[in-house]
Structure formats: C-alpha cells, structure tokens
Structure to design on (223 residues):
C-alpha cells in the first residue's frame, strides 16, 4: 500500500461543473498537506496548502482535510478547460519528509 | 523573486556515462529537495537538505548517485555511471521552513540511451 493514495483517473467533467479530487494517506502523524497542479511536460505548481481540519477556500479551489479519516480533498468549482492537468497530493510529517501520490488526471471538456 | 533554477533542462547521454544536474533554490530557502519523477507517477524523494546537511538520503541509490550542497545554497546531483533505467525527470525544490510548501524548478529531463 502506498503512503499516499489517489485515484489515477482520468476524471472527466464538463466545463462549469465541480471537480472533486480525493487523497488518502497512511501516516497518522502527517501535519501538512498540499495540492499541486502539473501540466504535461511541466513541473508541479503549488495551488493549495492546508494544515488543520476543515475547509480552506482560495478562489475556485477548496481544500478539505479530515485527519481522523486521513483524508484530504480538492474541489474545483466552475471548472475550466485550463484546469485540465494532473493534480498531485503531497503529505508532510513533522520530520519534514514529504510524500507524493501518483496524481489524478483531470480533463475538463468544453 | 526568482524561482528555483535548474540546469540543464534536457540531457541525453549514453549509458555508463556520468551526468550532473545543478539547482539554485529560492533565496533564503534553507530546505532543498531532489526528486525523481517517472512518467505517470508522482515525484519520489531522493535527498533532502537542511542548509548544507543531508538529513534524508534514505532513497538515494548511493552506489551511483551522489549529491552535495556546499555552503547551503546551490546543489548538484550526480549519477555515475548512468543506466537506462535512470531516464526520468529530475526535479529540485526548496522551502523556507520544515513543514511549509515546496516550490519546484523546471526540472531536468534525462534520457539515457
């Protein structure tokens, strides 16, 4: 079992819809959680970070964290074709070790 | 503010040859990471530095890979000798504190033929 699990997808949503991306992790002492977006042939780009239980909103993006369930999610509202990319979930423990999932590929269809 | 800078962007070498990658982190970032990313997979940590000290190199194949971060700023990652299976994208990232977000450079795409 991988330390950080994501559905590989592809996840396909129509333009304007809500895209929901999920991530589970195995290390209970994890403290920091990040979502990165990676376009094909490019490097990962940070879009959200979350450190405490609950929701964190930034524009069209909302990150949700539930440490008891070891679950973190990313919602993208009003999805646009430019959101089509691979979304990577990353988890950090207190010791600074960072582990990435293999990503979920999102396609937003016009 | 300049981001993380890596060079070269692309490198093609023959197997058994040496290769080196260079990374300049964001100014003031004490933590530097080298990751390897294969197609369709997430980045995998090779080594993490806190200033000039390598604090996590458990995933670095030490028989052929080496890294250094002299003076706690720039870093180089070396492979000698390269194998076909080393073909991947090598990513450098930096962060300013232990548990904060990491920012990635553009990566070096290595092809071993």
């Amino acid at each position: 079992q991988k330390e950080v699990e994501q559905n590989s997808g592809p996840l396909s949503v129509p333009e304007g819809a809500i895209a929901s991306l999920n991530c589970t992790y195995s290390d209970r002492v994890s403290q920091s959680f990040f979502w990165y977006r990676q376009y094909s042939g490019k490097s990962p780009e940070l879009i959200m970070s979350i450190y405490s239980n609950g929701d964190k909103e930034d524009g069209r993006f909302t990150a949700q964290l539930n440490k008891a369930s070891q679950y973190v999610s990313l919602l993208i509202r009003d999805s646009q074709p430019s959101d089509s990319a691979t979304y990577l979930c990353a988890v950090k423990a207190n010791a600074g070790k960072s582990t990435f999932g293999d990503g979920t590929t999102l396609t937003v269809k016009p | 503010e300049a981001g993380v800078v890596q060079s070269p962007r692309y490198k093609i070498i023959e197997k058994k040859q040496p290769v080196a990658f260079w990374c300049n982190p964001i100014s003031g970032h004490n933590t530097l990471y080298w990751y390897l990313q294969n197609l369709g997979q997430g980045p995998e940590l090779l080594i993490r530095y806190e200033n000039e000290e390598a604090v996590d190199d458990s995933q670095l194949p030490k028989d052929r890979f080496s890294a250094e971060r002299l003076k706690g700023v720039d870093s180089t990652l070396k492979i000698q000798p390269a194998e076909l299976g080393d073909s991947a994208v090598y990513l450098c990232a930096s962060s300013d504190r232990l548990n904060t977000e990491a920012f990635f450079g553009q990566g070096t795409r290595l092809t071993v033929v």
